[in-house]
Structure formats: structure tokens, C-alpha cells
């Protein structure tokens, strides 16, 4: 009979198989110095790995306390393993395994904010990084302002000492720090929202202003909210991933994380106190993150959202399935090159066309099993920065938006078809799912009425954009095709129209 395999933990570190890299520093001596809010696959594959690299190079008091205020619980996975986990880098048949040691403690704070506040307000925490998903900021996507009608914000403004939301928890953290030791704090957002540091600062400030007692002024003087661009594809971990570690390396690990080889982190140099020297291990400190952020969110994330929603409509499971489809691949490449790239400002050292090819190449990695439904989750919180902002820039330039409008209609069609009226074709998770389903249930299959109803949601579509006739027409016509029996007709038609427009332009310029 086989004995059940040992679980990863400090006792196993010295006996790991040679093919698994281990922390190159004395982990027992690692003191906590920062916290991370939202410990999921991405954090384990990104910030925690950079920190692990840094600790190996230059040991310092930068142990991470991982805090979750939403599921999943951490105690039974990372907690049982004293924060240790295996990070796999996978590219097609290549696997590289390493045990990461930078997380020294985990705290579950799903039931109440108290355990989280105890950590975040403590004087030995000098910096807080966070990946709390786009909707965690409780902002209005079209404006970036705090959504004062959000149920958690309503709750937190009424009960500021027992907050539930991220803005409420951060405001309370800073209030407690001010009242107890007065030490400054850097709050580093690592989520894919536009100008993430600016939005985080805005939602916290708005909250603090309502709280009064000079809190907002104290925060302005004692906290920093740098912007950051983060990048590494790290899908939700599956049971298969855990089983693979057991099969390959002989131990059990309930907190495996799987990512692609590529990684990038660009951080605005605006800190309130000490920061880890992540710039020594591949991150970049810059004065302005904007060009990097636009490049990444519009090209890589724009391609992912496009392939995800159109991929689901085409019956495809993963990103790599969608990008292997010749029509979808041709579409996304043309969209990025022709419509997205001209909206970008130059990024030092980056050739835009090469970046597009590199991004599409990353999406072909068959070992990264990123489900289209996962990327389509919370699409309402993603399309502004990935699709609508480049569309708005194009319209300002008087340039075409026929291609970028298709994935916008794709997002609509994805939620519309989850409604009762459309037979609930798939389960969806998006704060606006109910609203879109309500429109679909009332209107039925009438593309102009559906598009009109959805474009009127002004917390996603800024009124100026929603009123633009070119945009409305392009979205409506794509939506009509996407809801038909031949959804990919939308993709073919937009490519054909784009070709016609191109020929016209080249004839005109030849005259
Ligand atoms: C993905 C991102 O789920 C999603 O929205 O587009 O998580 C993406 O994989 C990362 O931003 C890559 O850095």
C-alpha cells in the first residue's frame, strides 16, 4: 500500500527533489515587513516571486503577510504549509519548479475585518501590495470615482470601524495607524485598472473625507499610492495542477501556482518610506507608468478579453484554443495592429509590432490553461481600460473603430446569452450581469434595442462615447451577427469592411 505523500512544509525544504529550486536564504530568520491583500494565483506567481528573488539577492526584513478578505481561505492551504508553495513556470512541455518562501504568514479575514486590520495597522508593516480584482476598488468604471451607492460602501460609511470593502478597510487601517503609531504607509495596487494608484487614492480619500476628523489630510501627508503595471499570465489553479506536482515531485502541495515564463512589473517611484529593491530583480521603477499600462492593458489584456468573449461564442474553451483559430487570430492581430497600436505613446525599448507578436505568442502557450470564461468574468470592469479607452482615443483622432467595437459587442453578447430570455447558455459572474440580463429579458432579440439599452449604462459607457453614432452603429451591427446562428460572421464582416476601408484609403492616397 502506498503511504500518502508528505505535504510541503519547512521540514521538507532540505529534502526537495533536485529539480525543485528552494529559497536561497534563511527563511527562519525572515521577519515580516509588508502585507499583501488578495493572495491568489497571480500574487503567488508575481509579487511573491519578485520578493523571493530579492531576498535571495539581498536579505532584508521583507517577509510578506498574506491577507484574504474574500474567499478562498488561506489557513488550510498556504497556512498549513507555513506559507511555502510550489510555483511552476510552464511553457508547452517545459516545466520549471521552485518553492517560494517570501510569504511568512497568512491571515483569513473573510468573516470580519479585524484580523486584516490587526496586520495592516501594525507598525512593522511598511508597505501593502494588493491584487483585489478590478471590482474590489468599488469605483465607477467610466469615471474612476468611488461608487457611493455600492452596498459595501454604504455599509462601511455607516460602520467605519467594521468595514467590508477595500476602500473602507484601507481608510480604517490608516485611521488606526494615525491613532496608534503614526507611521506612514505605501499602498501599491497591482490590479489591472487604469491608473490603479490614482483610483485607489481617490476611493480611499473620498471615503476618508466622509469620515472627517482630518483623516483625509493625514492620509495625504502620510500615505503613498503609486501606480503599477503588472504582467504574468497565471490562471486559476486546478486539481490537475496539484496532482501534477505530486506525480512529478512526490509531495502534496495545496497552494501550487502556475504561470508563464514572461513577467513584468513597472512601478511608479512614489513611496512613503522604505520599499523593497524589486528593481534589482527585474522590476522597473519609473516616473510615469501610463505608457506601460496602456501598452499592456490595451494589447495583451485587450487581446485576452477579445479572444475570451469571442472564443466562448465560438465554442472554444481556453485562450490557446481561441488564438489557434485562424479567423480569431487574424482578427485580433489586425485589431491590435491597425486600431490599438496607434493609440499608444512610445515605450522606451519596446517595438510595438514586436510587442503584439510577443503577446500573441504568449497566448499560444498550451500549458497555460486559461479558460475563456475566467477571463470573461467581470468583463464590465475590464472593457473600459482594454477596449473603450482606445476606442475613445481613436474617435478623437477621427480614425476607424470597426474592429475594436466587435469585442465590445462580444462582451454584450456574452452577458445577453446568460439571460433567461436567451436560455441561460452559460453561468456568468459580473456585477452587471443582472442589469444586462434584465435588458435582454425585456427587449428580446432586437440588436439595436439591446445595444441601446446596454450603451445607456453610463457607469460603463461615458455618455460622450455612448452617443457617438459611428460607435453605436459598429456595436449594433456586430451584436446582431454575434447573436445569430453564425456568430463568427461578426468577425468576418468587420474584417471585410476593414479591408474595403483600407483599399479606399490606399486609392485615395495614390491619387
Ligand atoms: C486576464 C488577466 O483574467 C483576466 O482578466 O486578462 O488576469 C491577465 O492574465 C493578466 O493581466 C496578465 O498579466
Write a structural description.
Helices cover 45% and strands 12% of the residues. It is globular, with a radius of gyration of 23 Å. It is of the alpha/beta class. α9 crosses α14 (383-396). It is built from 20 helices and 13 strands. A hairpin with a 2-residue loop joins β4 (85-91) and β5 (94-100). The termini are far apart. It folds into two domains: 10-286, NAD(P)-binding Rossmann-like Domain (Rossmann fold, 3-Layer(aba) Sandwich), CATH 3.40.50; 290-510, N-(1-d-carboxylethyl)-l-norvaline Dehydrogenase, domain 2. The chain has helices at residues 41-45, 47-57, 114-120, 151-158, 166-180, 196-211, 215-222, 239-249, 290-313, 319-323, 326-340, 352-363, 372-376, 383-396, 405-416, 433-443, 447-455, 463-466, 469-482, 489-510; strands at residues 20-21, 32-37, 63-68, 85-91, 94-100, 103-108, 127-130, 185-189, 223-224, 228-231, 257-259, 264-268, 284-286. The model has no long low-confidence stretch (mean pLDDT 97). The structure holds D-mannonic acid. D-mannonic acid is lined by residues 192, 231-233, 301, 304, 374-375, 382. D-mannonic acid (CS2) is lined by residues 192, 231-233, 301, 304, 374-375, 382. Keywords: Oxidoreductase.
Give descriptors for this structure.
511 residues, alpha/beta, Rossmann fold, N-(1-d-carboxylethyl)-l-norvaline Dehydrogenase, domain 2, 2 domains, 6-stranded parallel β-sheet, 4-stranded mixed β-sheet, 20 helices, 13 strands, binds D-mannonic acid
Amino acid at each position: 500500500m502506498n503511504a500518502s505523500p508528505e505535504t510541503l512544509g519547512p521540514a521538507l525544504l532540505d529534502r526537495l527533489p533536485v529539480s525543485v529550486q528552494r529559497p536561497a536564504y534563511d527563511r527562519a530568520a525572515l521577519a515580516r515587513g509588508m502585507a499583501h491583500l488578495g493572495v491568489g494565483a497571480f500574487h503567488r506567481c508575481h509579487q511573491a516571486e519578485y520578493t523571493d528573488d530579492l531576498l535571495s539577492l539581498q536579505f532584508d526584513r521583507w517577509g510578506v503577510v498574506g491577507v484574504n478578505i474574500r474567499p478562498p481561505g488561506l489557513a488550510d492551504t498556504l497556512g498549513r504549509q507555513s506559507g511555502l508553495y510550489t510555483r511552476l513556470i510552464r511553457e508547452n512541455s517545459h516545466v520549471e519548479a521552485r518553492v517560494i518562501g517570501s510569504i511568512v504568514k497568512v491571515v483569513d479575514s473573510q468573516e470580519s475585518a479585524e484580523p486584516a486590520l490587526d496586520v495592516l495597522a501594525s507598525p512593522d508593516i511598511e508597505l501593502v501590495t494588493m491584487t483585489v480584482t478590478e471590482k474590489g476598488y468599488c469605483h465607477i468604471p467610466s469615471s474612476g470615482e468611488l461608487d457611493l451607492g455600492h452596498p459595501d460602501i454604504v455599509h462601511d460609511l455607516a460602520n467605519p470601524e467594521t468595514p467590508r470593502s477595500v476602500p473602507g478597510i484601507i481608510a480604517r487601517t490608516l485611521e488606526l495607524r494615525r491613532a496608534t503609531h503614526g507611521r506612514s504607509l505605501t499602498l501599491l495596487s497591482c490590479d489591472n485598472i487604469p491608473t490603479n494608484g490614482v483610483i485607489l487614492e481617490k476611493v480611499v480619500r473620498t471615503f476618508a473625507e466622509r469620515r472627517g476628523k482630518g483623516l483625509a489630510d493625514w492620509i495625504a501627508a502620510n500615505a503613498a499610492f503609486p501606480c503599477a503595471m503588472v504582467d504574468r499570465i497565471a490562471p486559476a489553479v486546478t486539481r490537475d495542477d496539484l496532482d501534477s506536482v505530486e506525480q512529478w515531485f512526490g509531495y502534496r502541495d495545496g497552494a501550487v501556482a502556475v504561470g508563464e515564463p514572461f513577467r513584468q512589473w513597472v512601478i511608479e517611484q512614489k513611496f512613503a518610506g522604505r520599499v523593497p529593491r524589486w528593481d534589482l530583480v527585474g522590476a522597473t521603477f519609473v516616473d510615469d507608468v501610463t505608457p506601460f499600462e496602456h501598452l499592456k492593458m490595451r494589447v495583451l489584456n485587450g487581446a485576452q478579453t477579445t479572444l475570451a468573449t469571442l472564443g466562448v461564442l465560438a465554442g472554444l474553451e481556453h485562450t490557446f484554443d481561441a488564438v489557434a483559430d485562424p479567423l480569431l487570430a487574424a482578427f485580433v492581430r489586425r485589431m491590435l495592429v491597425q486600431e490599438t497600436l496607434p493609440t499608444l505613446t512610445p515605450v522606451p525599448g519596446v517595438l510595438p509590432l514586436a510587442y503584439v507578436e510577443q503577446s500573441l505568442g504568449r497566448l499560444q502557450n498550451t500549458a497555460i490553461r486559461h479558460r475563456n470564461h475566467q477571463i470573461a468574468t467581470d468583463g464590465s470592469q475590464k472593457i473600459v481600460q482594454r477596449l473603450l479607452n482606445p476606442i475613445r482615443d481613436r474617435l478623437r483622432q477621427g480614425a476607424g473603430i470597426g474592429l475594436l467595437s466587435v469585442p465590445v459587442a462580444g462582451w454584450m453578447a456574452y452577458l445577453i446569452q446568460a439571460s433567461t430570455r436567451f436560455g441561460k447558455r452559460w453561468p456568468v459572474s459580473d456585477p452587471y450581469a443582472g442589469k444586462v440580463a434584465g435588458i435582454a429579458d425585456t427587449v428580446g432579440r432586437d440588436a439595436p434595442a439591446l445595444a441601446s439599452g446596454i450603451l445607456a449604462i453610463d457607469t460603463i459607457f461615458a455618455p460622450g462615447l455612448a452617443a457617438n453614432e459611428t460607435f453605436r452603429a459598429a456595436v449594433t451591427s456586430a451584436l446582431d451577427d454575434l447573436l445569430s446562428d453564425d456568430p463568427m460572421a461578426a468577425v468576418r464582416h468587420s474584417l471585410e469592411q476593414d479591408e474595403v476601408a483600407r483599399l479606399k484609403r490606399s486609392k485615395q492616397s495614390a491619387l
